Amino acid sequence: MIRFVSLQKRYGKRTIALDGVSLEVPEGIFCLLGPNGAGKTTLIKIACGVLLPDRGDVLFDGESIRKRTKSLQRLIAAVFENAENAYGYLSVQDNLMYFGYLWGIPSRTLRERVDYLTERLGLSEKRKESFTKLSRGMKQKVAVALAMIREPRFLFLDEPTLGLDVFSAETVKDMIREWASQGGRTVLLTTHNMALAEELGQGFAFISEGRVIWQGRKEDLAGLPAYRLEYRITVRGKVPADAPGRAETRNGLTTLTVSREELGPALSVLGGAEIVEITKEETDLEDLFKEVMK
Question: Quick one: which H or E segment has residue 147?
């Protein structure tokens, strides 16, 4: 688990980046959401030891980032937005091998990891190409590979699919899921892409002006006031007058809209009616985020 404890950070005298942020990030994939300038990147940079907080601390399974121990740093990796964290004149393969050697990964293990990561991330055909010649999307995938090469326990991803085409984004998402599914690992992901967060996130925090507005697990979203869950049951003909919910008839079909609590009674009342379809309508993450941030 990662615990952010009362973090404060200023840039100069007036710009408050973090204003007493406290946050618990459990194992799995946790998404940090907020507008530009909310403090997301600053939070990640402090967690990685790139910046020091003015006050507060970050604890990784109880160990403070302020100690900057080598053993803790080995457990942490990050991909920052638009970061080119590789040597431009080296090839993709040489970059991965070089940084793997720096982290003391045995040669045989390192070669296996390089083969695996380049294959999974669609970099095999670019292995011998220098980093500077790669497209923005390819550079992003190399950055992800460099972060994963030493198999960290804590992975920070700042807009990991930015600049990727649809197919490359799917590849990176699959890698994130696969990596996080192996026990004891934590991903903290920041993004403006609500669809990405909704697809990957198991926990969420909403941050604005350096403060956490809301945090919780995916299932906790249902407790937000703006959350709505309805079922729409479409049948041929009309529905009984005592059916719960709202009924609308059009072109010989009637759609009955009911809440989760009304679903069971509605199906009982419909009895032998010919049900065409049942669909689920749920408030999406983007709408919940907008309501909380108002």
Answer: helix 136-148
Check whether residue 239 and residue 161 sit in a common domain: no
The token pair at 107 is 């040669």
d(CA 119, CA 123): 6
Q: DSSP letters of 231-285?
A: EEEEEES---TT-SSEEEEETTEEEEEEEHHHHHHHHHHHTT--EEEEEEEE--H
pTM assigned to the model = 0.82
Instruction: Give the domain extent around 27.
Output: 2-219
Residue 140 forms part of a structural domain: yes
| Pair of tokens at residue 9 | 């950070």
CA diameter of the chain: 75
Shared domain for 136 and 280, answered yes or no, is: no
pLDDT tens-digit profile of 25-63?
999 999 999 888 888 989 999 998 889 899 999 999 999
Query: CA nearest 252: which of 234, 237, 267, 232?
Result: 237
Total domains in the chain come to 2
In this structure, the answer to whether residues 241 and 263 fall within a common structural domain is: yes
